[in-house]
From TrEMBL:
Homodecamer; pentamer of dimers. This is 3-methyl-2-oxobutanoate hydroxymethyltransferase. It comes from the Bacteria. It is an enzyme of class 2 (transferase). GO terms for cellular component: cytoplasm. It is found in: Cytoplasm. The active site is at E202. It comes from Galbibacter orientalis DSM 19592. HAMAP family: PanB. NCBIfam families: panB, PRK00311.1. It holds the Pfam family Pantoate_transf. Belongs to the PanB family.
Length: 284
């Protein structure tokens, strides 16, 4: 009996350490089945995506957070479909391994399932992306079904949905009350039944997120949703400490690039002003 248990444990370990040459939707399902956590980060341009992909990330999200990070808008609402396609195309050209998921921006899918399908098709055809992500549950079910029927993989997004910021009025934790928590669980099950391959849960209580992850067979990827889910996603610029004014509880900064970059640029300015740069070895 002990031999059998040991054999099973070794088999599970070997699966968890499986090397994926290319991450696919199926890869993520396999990871959940074998209790291997999924890593996910945003990227919006070629240079950063190349670094992120080379570091071994599983999923790259070309998020509508580009509206904030890259364009300086207060919300994600202003970014357009054309701009999302531009960012996604830049990322795709850099990626060899990761699954690339692209956000459908605000206004490109909410009003009409046919419009949602047209938007998703444009992203897939014009950028070469691998999947799209939509915010919402029951209210966008028909849009999700229309996109899935066209053969386009869909990732869901529940909890805090930034495209609905003016509806909520705040970026605080969602689903703390029982009614909203129950709706979130039902929406997660609905998205699974509809055919979504994964769901992002943003800024909800960790206990609820764990309950959702255990109630569905598709991967649940959290941001501010605790460690009881199947994977984690962060905005790359937050992780690297470039957006130094942003301090949510869920964020772990792995670098402080804001200070390092500021110091390096200031030193360059000083070197140019003092005629130290370029020196004899730095010219032809």
């Amino acid at each position: 009996m002990k031999t059998v248990i040991l054999s099973l444990k070794l088999e599970q370990m070997s699966v968890a350490k499986k090397e994926y040459k290319r991450i696919t939707v199926k890869s993520l399902i396999d990871m959940k089945e074998h209790n291997e956590k999924i890593s996910m980060l945003t990227a919006y341009d070629y240079s950063m995506a190349k670094i992120v992909d080379g570091a071994g990330i599983d999923v790259i999200l070309v998020g509508d957070s580009a509206s904030n990070v890259m364009a300086g808008h207060e919300t994600t609402l202003p970014i357009t479909l054309d701009q999302m396609i531009y960012h996604a195309s830049s990322v795709i050209r850099a990626v060899n391994r990761a699954l690339v998921v692209v956000d459908l921006p605000f206004g490109s899918y909410q009003s009409d399932p046919k419009e949602a399908l047209r938007s998703a098709i444009r992203i897939m055809k014009e950028s070469g992306a691998h999947a799209v992500k939509l915010e919402g549950g029951k209210e966008i079910k028909e849009s999700i079904k229309r996109i899935l029927h066209a053969g386009i993989p869909v990732m869901g997004h529940l909890g805090l949905t930034p495209q609905s910021i003016y509806k909520f009025g705040t970026y605080t934790v969602r689903a703390k009350e029982e009614e909203e928590a129950l709706k979130l669980i039902e929406d997660a099950k609905l998205l699974e039944r509809a055919g979504c391959f994964a769901i992002v849960l943003e800024k909800i209580p960790a206990k609820l997120a764990k309950e959702v992850a255990e109630s569905v067979s598709i991967p649940i990827i959290g941001i501010g949703a605790g460690n009881g889910v199947d994977g984690q996603v962060l905005v790359l610029h937050d992780l690297l400490g470039m957006t130094h004014e942003f301090h949510p509880r869920f964020l772990r900064r792995y670098l402080n690039l804001y200070d390092e970059m500021t110091g390096a640029i200031s030193q360059y300015v000083d070197d140019v002003k003092s005629k130290d740069f370029p020196n004899d070895d730095e010219q032809y």
